[in-house]
Amino acid sequence: MTDAPRSRLALLLEAVLGVGTDLDPRGTLLRLVDGAAELTGAAHAWLSTTGPEPDLLTGIGSPAAPPGVPDTPHHLRVPIHVEGEEFGALHLAGRAGGGPFTAADEQLLRFLAAQAGIAIANARLYGTARQRERWIEGAAAVTTALLTGDAAGDALTTVAERARRLADAAAGVVLQPTGEGGMVIVAVSAPDDPGGPAGAAIPPGSPVLERLFAGEPVFVEDAATDPRMTTPVRHRFGPSMMLPLRAGGRLIGTLALPRRRGDRPYTGVERALAVQFASQAAVALVLADARRGRERLAVYEDRDRIARDLHDLVVQRLFATGLMLESTQRRTGAGEVEELVDRAVDDLRSTVREVRAAILALQRHPPSPHAGEHPAAPARGPAPAATVRDRVLRETAAAAARLGFAPSTRFTGAVDSRVPDPVADRLLAALRRALAAACRRPGVGRVEVAVDATAALPDGRDAVRLTVRDDGEGGEGGGTTVTWECAV
Fold first, then answer.
1. Which stretches of sequence are listed as region Disordered (predicted)?
2. Which of 201, 244, 383, 433 could cysteine-pair with 184, CB 3.0–4.6 Å?
3. Residue 25 banded pLDDT, cuts 50, 70, 90
4. CATH code where residue 203 lies
Protein backbone atom coordinates (compact mmCIF):
# COMPACT_ATOMS: atom_id res chain seq x y z
CA MET A 1 0.00 0.00 0.00
CA THR A 2 2.92 2.32 0.55
CA ASP A 3 4.51 1.65 -2.86
CA ALA A 4 1.77 3.41 -4.85
CA PRO A 5 1.93 6.80 -3.04
CA ARG A 6 5.70 6.69 -3.10
CA SER A 7 5.62 5.93 -6.82
CA ARG A 8 3.28 8.84 -7.53
CA LEU A 9 5.45 11.15 -5.46
CA ALA A 10 8.50 10.12 -7.44
CA LEU A 11 6.63 10.72 -10.67
CA LEU A 12 5.50 14.14 -9.45
CA LEU A 13 9.03 15.16 -8.50
CA GLU A 14 10.32 13.95 -11.85
CA ALA A 15 7.61 15.89 -13.68
CA VAL A 16 8.30 19.07 -11.66
CA LEU A 17 12.02 18.81 -12.36
CA GLY A 18 11.37 18.23 -16.03
CA VAL A 19 9.08 21.24 -16.26
CA GLY A 20 11.33 23.58 -14.30
CA THR A 21 14.65 22.89 -16.01
CA ASP A 22 13.79 23.88 -19.57
CA LEU A 23 14.05 27.55 -20.64
CA ASP A 24 12.33 26.76 -23.92
CA PRO A 25 8.60 27.51 -23.36
CA ARG A 26 7.43 24.97 -25.90
CA GLY A 27 9.64 22.29 -24.38
CA THR A 28 8.24 23.18 -20.94
CA LEU A 29 4.66 22.72 -22.14
CA LEU A 30 5.38 19.42 -23.86
CA ARG A 31 7.03 18.11 -20.69
CA LEU A 32 3.98 19.27 -18.73
CA VAL A 33 1.61 17.28 -20.98
CA ASP A 34 3.78 14.16 -20.83
CA GLY A 35 4.23 14.43 -17.05
CA ALA A 36 0.50 14.91 -16.41
CA ALA A 37 -0.42 11.86 -18.48
CA GLU A 38 2.16 9.69 -16.75
CA LEU A 39 1.27 10.99 -13.27
CA THR A 40 -2.48 10.28 -13.57
CA GLY A 41 -2.46 7.37 -15.96
CA ALA A 42 -4.57 9.37 -18.43
CA ALA A 43 -4.87 7.94 -21.90
CA HIS A 44 -5.07 11.38 -23.50
CA ALA A 45 -3.59 14.74 -22.50
CA TRP A 46 -3.44 18.05 -24.36
CA LEU A 47 -2.93 21.73 -23.73
CA SER A 48 -4.98 24.73 -24.76
CA THR A 49 -4.12 28.42 -24.56
CA THR A 50 -6.48 31.29 -23.85
CA GLY A 51 -4.54 33.85 -25.90
CA PRO A 52 -1.92 33.99 -28.62
CA GLU A 53 1.66 33.43 -27.56
CA PRO A 54 3.47 34.02 -30.86
CA ASP A 55 6.81 34.61 -29.20
CA LEU A 56 6.66 31.39 -27.18
CA LEU A 57 5.02 28.57 -29.09
CA THR A 58 3.11 27.47 -32.11
CA GLY A 59 0.69 24.69 -32.83
CA ILE A 60 -0.75 24.35 -29.31
CA GLY A 61 -4.23 22.88 -29.33
CA SER A 62 -7.64 24.37 -28.58
CA PRO A 63 -9.90 23.49 -25.61
CA ALA A 64 -11.73 20.97 -27.79
CA ALA A 65 -10.40 17.43 -27.75
CA PRO A 66 -7.90 16.85 -30.56
CA PRO A 67 -8.63 14.29 -33.28
CA GLY A 68 -8.42 10.70 -32.10
CA VAL A 69 -9.60 11.35 -28.53
CA PRO A 70 -12.81 9.41 -27.86
CA ASP A 71 -15.79 11.10 -26.27
CA THR A 72 -15.67 10.28 -22.57
CA PRO A 73 -17.51 11.66 -19.52
CA HIS A 74 -14.31 11.48 -17.51
CA HIS A 75 -12.55 14.71 -18.30
CA LEU A 76 -10.31 16.86 -16.11
CA ARG A 77 -9.33 20.47 -16.80
CA VAL A 78 -6.68 22.25 -14.73
CA PRO A 79 -5.92 25.94 -15.48
CA ILE A 80 -2.37 27.23 -15.84
CA HIS A 81 -1.73 30.74 -14.53
CA VAL A 82 1.29 32.81 -15.49
CA GLU A 83 1.94 36.01 -13.54
CA GLY A 84 -1.61 36.17 -12.29
CA GLU A 85 -3.30 35.62 -15.66
CA GLU A 86 -4.71 32.45 -17.11
CA PHE A 87 -2.32 31.28 -19.77
CA GLY A 88 -4.17 28.13 -20.73
CA ALA A 89 -5.33 24.81 -19.38
CA LEU A 90 -4.21 21.21 -19.17
CA HIS A 91 -6.82 18.69 -20.29
CA LEU A 92 -6.94 14.99 -19.40
CA ALA A 93 -9.32 12.33 -20.68
CA GLY A 94 -9.75 8.53 -20.58
CA ARG A 95 -8.12 7.37 -17.37
CA ALA A 96 -6.85 3.82 -17.30
CA GLY A 97 -9.46 1.45 -15.92
CA GLY A 98 -12.28 3.65 -17.14
CA GLY A 99 -12.89 5.34 -13.79
CA PRO A 100 -13.17 9.07 -13.08
CA PHE A 101 -10.28 11.30 -12.06
CA THR A 102 -10.01 11.76 -8.32
CA ALA A 103 -9.56 14.82 -6.17
CA ALA A 104 -6.00 13.66 -5.51
CA ASP A 105 -5.38 13.63 -9.27
CA GLU A 106 -6.64 17.18 -9.54
CA GLN A 107 -4.57 18.33 -6.57
CA LEU A 108 -1.39 16.85 -8.04
CA LEU A 109 -2.09 18.39 -11.42
CA ARG A 110 -2.76 21.81 -9.88
CA PHE A 111 0.60 21.66 -8.17
CA LEU A 112 2.26 20.63 -11.43
CA ALA A 113 0.43 23.40 -13.31
CA ALA A 114 1.59 25.97 -10.76
CA GLN A 115 5.19 24.90 -11.29
CA ALA A 116 4.66 25.08 -15.03
CA GLY A 117 3.32 28.64 -14.69
CA ILE A 118 6.48 29.66 -12.85
CA ALA A 119 8.66 27.97 -15.47
CA ILE A 120 6.80 29.69 -18.32
CA ALA A 121 7.18 33.08 -16.59
CA ASN A 122 10.91 32.45 -16.21
CA ALA A 123 11.15 31.39 -19.85
CA ARG A 124 9.38 34.59 -20.86
CA LEU A 125 11.83 36.67 -18.85
CA TYR A 126 14.76 34.78 -20.34
CA GLY A 127 13.42 35.21 -23.87
CA THR A 128 12.86 38.94 -23.31
CA ALA A 129 16.36 39.34 -21.90
CA ARG A 130 17.86 37.52 -24.88
CA GLN A 131 15.83 39.68 -27.26
CA ARG A 132 16.95 42.84 -25.50
CA GLU A 133 20.56 41.66 -25.60
CA ARG A 134 20.37 41.00 -29.35
CA TRP A 135 18.88 44.42 -30.08
CA ILE A 136 21.48 46.20 -27.92
CA GLU A 137 24.28 44.28 -29.65
CA GLY A 138 22.74 45.13 -33.01
CA ALA A 139 22.52 48.83 -32.20
CA ALA A 140 26.15 48.83 -31.03
CA ALA A 141 27.26 47.03 -34.20
CA VAL A 142 25.42 49.55 -36.39
CA THR A 143 26.98 52.47 -34.52
CA THR A 144 30.45 50.97 -34.87
CA ALA A 145 29.94 50.27 -38.57
CA LEU A 146 28.68 53.78 -39.29
CA LEU A 147 31.40 55.55 -37.33
CA THR A 148 34.27 53.49 -38.76
CA GLY A 149 33.08 52.78 -42.29
CA ASP A 150 34.20 54.74 -45.34
CA ALA A 151 31.21 54.43 -47.68
CA ALA A 152 28.57 57.03 -46.89
CA GLY A 153 26.17 55.51 -49.41
CA ASP A 154 26.09 52.22 -47.48
CA ALA A 155 25.05 53.76 -44.15
CA LEU A 156 21.29 53.50 -44.70
CA THR A 157 21.55 49.98 -46.11
CA THR A 158 23.53 48.97 -43.03
CA VAL A 159 20.72 50.20 -40.77
CA ALA A 160 18.03 48.52 -42.88
CA GLU A 161 19.86 45.18 -43.04
CA ARG A 162 20.65 44.93 -39.33
CA ALA A 163 17.14 45.99 -38.27
CA ARG A 164 15.54 43.45 -40.64
CA ARG A 165 17.52 40.62 -39.07
CA LEU A 166 16.83 41.70 -35.50
CA ALA A 167 13.10 42.08 -36.12
CA ASP A 168 12.81 38.86 -38.17
CA ALA A 169 11.10 40.98 -40.82
CA ALA A 170 10.61 40.28 -44.51
CA ALA A 171 12.30 43.57 -45.39
CA GLY A 172 14.17 46.46 -43.84
CA VAL A 173 13.35 49.77 -45.50
CA VAL A 174 14.59 53.32 -44.96
CA LEU A 175 12.57 56.26 -46.27
CA GLN A 176 13.53 59.92 -46.47
CA PRO A 177 11.38 63.06 -46.61
CA THR A 178 10.85 64.65 -50.01
CA GLY A 179 10.62 68.34 -50.79
CA GLU A 180 6.88 67.97 -51.43
CA GLY A 181 6.17 66.65 -47.92
CA GLY A 182 6.04 62.94 -48.72
CA MET A 183 8.58 60.17 -48.22
CA VAL A 184 10.47 57.98 -50.68
CA ILE A 185 12.27 54.69 -50.12
CA VAL A 186 16.05 55.14 -50.47
CA ALA A 187 17.46 51.91 -48.98
CA VAL A 188 16.09 48.36 -48.92
CA SER A 189 17.21 45.05 -47.45
CA ALA A 190 14.97 42.29 -48.80
CA PRO A 191 16.99 39.17 -49.70
CA ASP A 192 13.88 37.10 -50.45
CA ASP A 193 12.42 39.78 -52.73
CA PRO A 194 15.10 41.24 -55.06
CA GLY A 195 12.58 43.62 -56.64
CA GLY A 196 11.46 44.69 -53.21
CA PRO A 197 9.75 47.99 -52.46
CA ALA A 198 12.67 50.09 -53.74
CA GLY A 199 11.57 53.44 -55.13
CA ALA A 200 8.05 53.28 -53.67
CA ALA A 201 6.82 56.50 -52.09
CA ILE A 202 4.31 57.70 -49.51
CA PRO A 203 2.43 60.70 -50.95
CA PRO A 204 2.09 63.93 -48.95
CA GLY A 205 -0.86 64.17 -46.59
CA SER A 206 -0.88 60.50 -45.55
CA PRO A 207 -2.09 59.92 -41.95
CA VAL A 208 1.00 57.79 -41.40
CA LEU A 209 3.25 60.72 -42.29
CA GLU A 210 1.52 62.99 -39.79
CA ARG A 211 2.45 60.58 -37.01
CA LEU A 212 5.99 60.09 -38.28
CA PHE A 213 6.72 63.80 -38.73
CA ALA A 214 5.51 64.25 -35.17
CA GLY A 215 8.13 61.75 -34.05
CA GLU A 216 5.65 58.96 -33.22
CA PRO A 217 6.05 55.33 -34.33
CA VAL A 218 3.31 53.66 -36.34
CA PHE A 219 2.38 50.01 -35.75
CA VAL A 220 0.21 48.21 -38.30
CA GLU A 221 -1.44 44.81 -37.82
CA ASP A 222 -1.93 44.17 -41.55
CA ALA A 223 -0.38 46.52 -44.11
CA ALA A 224 -2.47 45.05 -46.92
CA THR A 225 -5.80 46.05 -45.36
CA ASP A 226 -4.91 49.05 -43.19
CA PRO A 227 -6.39 52.19 -44.86
CA ARG A 228 -3.47 54.29 -43.64
CA MET A 229 -1.02 52.39 -45.83
CA THR A 230 -0.86 53.85 -49.34
CA THR A 231 2.31 52.47 -50.92
CA PRO A 232 1.83 50.33 -54.04
CA VAL A 233 3.62 47.36 -52.39
CA ARG A 234 1.46 47.25 -49.24
CA HIS A 235 -0.43 44.15 -50.43
CA ARG A 236 2.74 42.05 -49.96
CA PHE A 237 3.02 42.67 -46.24
CA GLY A 238 1.19 42.07 -42.98
CA PRO A 239 2.37 43.18 -39.51
CA SER A 240 4.58 46.25 -39.87
CA MET A 241 6.43 48.87 -37.87
CA MET A 242 7.33 52.36 -39.09
CA LEU A 243 9.82 54.02 -36.76
CA PRO A 244 10.96 57.65 -37.02
CA LEU A 245 14.71 58.20 -37.34
CA ARG A 246 14.86 61.37 -35.31
CA ALA A 247 17.90 63.17 -33.90
CA GLY A 248 18.28 66.66 -32.50
CA GLY A 249 14.57 67.35 -32.93
CA ARG A 250 14.80 66.70 -36.67
CA LEU A 251 13.29 63.83 -38.65
CA ILE A 252 16.00 62.49 -40.94
CA GLY A 253 14.12 59.42 -42.13
CA THR A 254 11.91 56.48 -41.28
CA LEU A 255 12.78 52.84 -40.66
CA ALA A 256 10.06 50.42 -41.83
CA LEU A 257 10.07 46.73 -40.84
CA PRO A 258 7.25 44.82 -42.58
CA ARG A 259 6.57 41.11 -42.18
CA ARG A 260 4.85 38.90 -44.72
CA ARG A 261 1.10 38.48 -44.67
CA GLY A 262 0.15 35.79 -42.20
CA ASP A 263 3.32 36.15 -40.14
CA ARG A 264 3.05 36.59 -36.39
CA PRO A 265 2.36 40.12 -35.15
CA TYR A 266 4.99 42.14 -33.34
CA THR A 267 4.92 41.85 -29.56
CA GLY A 268 5.06 44.80 -27.20
CA VAL A 269 8.64 43.94 -26.30
CA GLU A 270 9.69 43.85 -29.96
CA ARG A 271 8.04 47.20 -30.61
CA ALA A 272 9.77 48.86 -27.65
CA LEU A 273 13.17 47.46 -28.61
CA ALA A 274 12.75 48.52 -32.24
CA VAL A 275 11.90 52.08 -31.19
CA GLN A 276 15.07 52.24 -29.09
CA PHE A 277 17.12 50.84 -31.96
CA ALA A 278 15.77 53.49 -34.35
CA SER A 279 16.65 56.28 -31.92
CA GLN A 280 20.22 55.06 -31.52
CA ALA A 281 20.62 54.46 -35.26
CA ALA A 282 19.46 58.01 -36.01
CA VAL A 283 22.08 59.47 -33.66
CA ALA A 284 24.75 57.24 -35.20
CA LEU A 285 23.78 58.36 -38.71
CA VAL A 286 24.08 62.03 -37.74
CA LEU A 287 27.44 61.47 -36.03
CA ALA A 288 28.75 59.47 -38.98
CA ASP A 289 27.68 62.20 -41.41
CA ALA A 290 29.39 64.83 -39.25
CA ARG A 291 32.58 62.76 -39.23
CA ARG A 292 32.51 62.40 -42.99
CA GLY A 293 31.89 66.13 -43.29
CA ARG A 294 34.98 66.87 -41.23
CA GLU A 295 37.01 64.44 -43.32
CA ARG A 296 35.80 66.05 -46.56
CA LEU A 297 36.65 69.50 -45.22
CA ALA A 298 40.14 68.34 -44.28
CA VAL A 299 40.61 66.89 -47.78
CA TYR A 300 39.40 70.13 -49.39
CA GLU A 301 41.75 72.21 -47.26
CA ASP A 302 44.64 69.92 -48.10
CA ARG A 303 43.84 70.09 -51.80
CA ASP A 304 43.71 73.89 -51.67
CA ARG A 305 47.06 73.98 -49.90
CA ILE A 306 48.66 71.68 -52.48
CA ALA A 307 47.23 73.78 -55.30
CA ARG A 308 48.59 76.98 -53.75
CA ASP A 309 52.01 75.42 -53.23
CA LEU A 310 52.12 74.16 -56.81
CA HIS A 311 51.10 77.53 -58.19
CA ASP A 312 53.29 79.68 -55.95
CA LEU A 313 56.43 77.58 -56.12
CA VAL A 314 56.50 75.07 -58.96
CA VAL A 315 54.70 76.99 -61.71
CA GLN A 316 56.51 80.25 -61.04
CA ARG A 317 59.90 78.52 -60.94
CA LEU A 318 59.21 76.62 -64.16
CA PHE A 319 57.95 79.77 -65.85
CA ALA A 320 61.05 81.70 -64.81
CA THR A 321 63.31 78.90 -66.02
CA GLY A 322 61.54 78.89 -69.35
CA LEU A 323 62.05 82.65 -69.75
CA MET A 324 65.77 82.28 -69.02
CA LEU A 325 66.09 79.51 -71.61
CA GLU A 326 64.24 81.59 -74.19
CA SER A 327 66.58 84.47 -73.48
CA THR A 328 69.58 82.17 -73.89
CA GLN A 329 68.11 80.87 -77.11
CA ARG A 330 67.98 84.38 -78.59
CA ARG A 331 71.57 85.10 -77.62
CA THR A 332 73.21 81.98 -79.03
CA GLY A 333 73.60 80.99 -82.65
CA ALA A 334 75.03 77.51 -82.28
CA GLY A 335 72.66 75.07 -83.93
CA GLU A 336 73.24 72.23 -81.47
CA VAL A 337 72.80 74.44 -78.41
CA GLU A 338 69.73 76.05 -79.96
CA GLU A 339 68.17 72.65 -80.54
CA LEU A 340 68.79 71.59 -76.96
CA VAL A 341 67.30 74.83 -75.66
CA ASP A 342 64.26 74.39 -77.90
CA ARG A 343 63.67 70.94 -76.46
CA ALA A 344 64.11 72.23 -72.91
CA VAL A 345 61.66 75.09 -73.52
CA ASP A 346 59.09 72.68 -75.00
CA ASP A 347 59.46 70.32 -72.05
CA LEU A 348 59.04 73.18 -69.59
CA ARG A 349 55.93 74.45 -71.38
CA SER A 350 54.48 70.94 -71.35
CA THR A 351 55.27 70.61 -67.65
CA VAL A 352 53.63 73.96 -66.88
CA ARG A 353 50.46 72.87 -68.70
CA GLU A 354 50.36 69.56 -66.81
CA VAL A 355 50.89 71.25 -63.45
CA ARG A 356 48.17 73.80 -64.22
CA ALA A 357 45.82 70.97 -65.15
CA ALA A 358 46.63 69.29 -61.83
CA ILE A 359 45.94 72.56 -60.00
CA LEU A 360 42.55 72.90 -61.70
CA ALA A 361 41.69 69.32 -60.78
CA LEU A 362 42.71 69.89 -57.15
CA GLN A 363 40.76 73.13 -56.83
CA ARG A 364 37.64 71.60 -58.36
CA HIS A 365 35.90 69.81 -55.47
CA PRO A 366 34.57 66.33 -56.22
CA PRO A 367 30.82 66.05 -56.81
CA SER A 368 28.75 66.10 -53.65
CA PRO A 369 26.83 62.94 -52.69
CA HIS A 370 23.30 62.71 -53.94
CA ALA A 371 20.87 64.19 -51.46
CA GLY A 372 19.23 60.80 -51.02
CA GLU A 373 22.40 58.95 -50.03
CA HIS A 374 22.42 60.04 -46.41
CA PRO A 375 19.61 61.27 -44.22
CA ALA A 376 21.75 63.60 -42.15
CA ALA A 377 23.10 65.51 -45.13
CA PRO A 378 21.80 69.07 -45.54
CA ALA A 379 19.73 69.91 -48.58
CA ARG A 380 21.87 70.76 -51.60
CA GLY A 381 21.41 71.70 -55.19
CA PRO A 382 22.24 69.24 -57.95
CA ALA A 383 25.85 68.03 -57.89
CA PRO A 384 28.09 69.71 -60.50
CA ALA A 385 28.73 67.57 -63.55
CA ALA A 386 32.25 66.32 -64.11
CA THR A 387 34.15 68.33 -66.73
CA VAL A 388 36.02 66.87 -69.69
CA ARG A 389 39.31 67.41 -67.84
CA ASP A 390 37.93 65.60 -64.80
CA ARG A 391 36.81 62.65 -66.86
CA VAL A 392 40.10 62.35 -68.75
CA LEU A 393 42.13 62.56 -65.52
CA ARG A 394 39.83 59.96 -63.97
CA GLU A 395 40.50 57.56 -66.85
CA THR A 396 44.28 58.05 -66.66
CA ALA A 397 44.21 57.58 -62.89
CA ALA A 398 42.33 54.32 -63.35
CA ALA A 399 44.88 53.17 -65.92
CA ALA A 400 47.72 54.02 -63.53
CA ALA A 401 46.67 51.17 -61.25
CA ARG A 402 47.10 48.70 -64.10
CA LEU A 403 50.20 50.26 -65.65
CA GLY A 404 52.10 50.71 -62.40
CA PHE A 405 52.76 54.39 -63.15
CA ALA A 406 50.72 57.51 -63.89
CA PRO A 407 50.35 58.49 -67.56
CA SER A 408 51.43 62.02 -68.50
CA THR A 409 48.38 64.15 -69.38
CA ARG A 410 48.41 67.43 -71.34
CA PHE A 411 45.51 69.68 -72.34
CA THR A 412 45.64 72.36 -75.02
CA GLY A 413 42.93 74.96 -75.42
CA ALA A 414 39.63 75.44 -73.64
CA VAL A 415 38.81 71.73 -73.45
CA ASP A 416 35.93 72.04 -71.00
CA SER A 417 34.05 74.74 -72.95
CA ARG A 418 34.82 73.72 -76.53
CA VAL A 419 34.09 69.98 -76.33
CA PRO A 420 30.33 69.17 -76.11
CA ASP A 421 29.11 66.22 -74.07
CA PRO A 422 28.37 63.83 -76.99
CA VAL A 423 31.88 64.38 -78.39
CA ALA A 424 33.36 64.06 -74.88
CA ASP A 425 31.66 60.68 -74.49
CA ARG A 426 33.21 59.45 -77.73
CA LEU A 427 36.61 60.87 -76.75
CA LEU A 428 36.50 59.07 -73.41
CA ALA A 429 35.58 55.80 -75.13
CA ALA A 430 38.57 56.19 -77.48
CA LEU A 431 40.83 57.02 -74.53
CA ARG A 432 39.69 53.91 -72.64
CA ARG A 433 40.43 51.72 -75.67
CA ALA A 434 43.87 53.24 -76.17
CA LEU A 435 44.83 52.95 -72.50
CA ALA A 436 43.56 49.36 -72.35
CA ALA A 437 45.72 48.49 -75.37
CA ALA A 438 48.74 50.16 -73.75
CA CYS A 439 48.18 48.15 -70.56
CA ARG A 440 48.27 44.92 -72.57
CA ARG A 441 51.33 45.89 -74.60
CA PRO A 442 54.69 44.54 -73.27
CA GLY A 443 57.52 46.86 -72.32
CA VAL A 444 55.43 49.97 -71.68
CA GLY A 445 57.21 52.32 -69.28
CA ARG A 446 55.73 55.66 -70.31
CA VAL A 447 52.33 56.76 -71.62
CA GLU A 448 51.55 60.29 -72.82
CA VAL A 449 47.97 61.49 -73.25
CA ALA A 450 47.29 64.76 -75.07
CA VAL A 451 43.90 66.41 -75.62
CA ASP A 452 44.02 69.35 -78.04
CA ALA A 453 40.87 71.45 -78.34
CA THR A 454 42.52 73.81 -80.89
CA ALA A 455 42.91 71.18 -83.61
CA ALA A 456 41.35 71.43 -87.07
CA LEU A 457 40.14 68.84 -89.55
CA PRO A 458 41.46 68.78 -93.17
CA ASP A 459 38.29 70.58 -94.29
CA GLY A 460 38.97 73.42 -91.84
CA ARG A 461 36.36 72.57 -89.21
CA ASP A 462 37.25 72.99 -85.56
CA ALA A 463 38.07 69.69 -83.89
CA VAL A 464 39.37 68.06 -80.75
CA ARG A 465 42.28 65.67 -81.12
CA LEU A 466 43.26 62.88 -78.72
CA THR A 467 46.77 61.46 -78.92
CA VAL A 468 47.96 58.53 -76.81
CA ARG A 469 51.63 57.56 -77.10
CA ASP A 470 53.49 54.76 -75.34
CA ASP A 471 57.01 53.35 -75.56
CA GLY A 472 56.01 49.69 -75.54
CA GLU A 473 57.15 46.94 -77.87
CA GLY A 474 55.45 46.19 -81.15
CA GLY A 475 55.16 49.65 -82.65
CA GLU A 476 57.36 51.36 -85.20
CA GLY A 477 60.36 53.03 -83.61
CA GLY A 478 59.81 51.16 -80.36
CA GLY A 479 56.47 52.72 -79.50
CA THR A 480 52.80 53.11 -80.45
CA THR A 481 50.81 56.27 -81.17
CA VAL A 482 47.00 56.30 -81.30
CA THR A 483 45.27 59.38 -82.70
CA TRP A 484 41.56 60.16 -82.61
CA GLU A 485 39.85 63.36 -83.66
CA CYS A 486 36.32 64.65 -84.09
CA ALA A 487 34.66 67.88 -85.13
CA VAL A 488 33.32 70.11 -82.33
1. 365-386
2. 201
3. low
4. 3.30.450.40
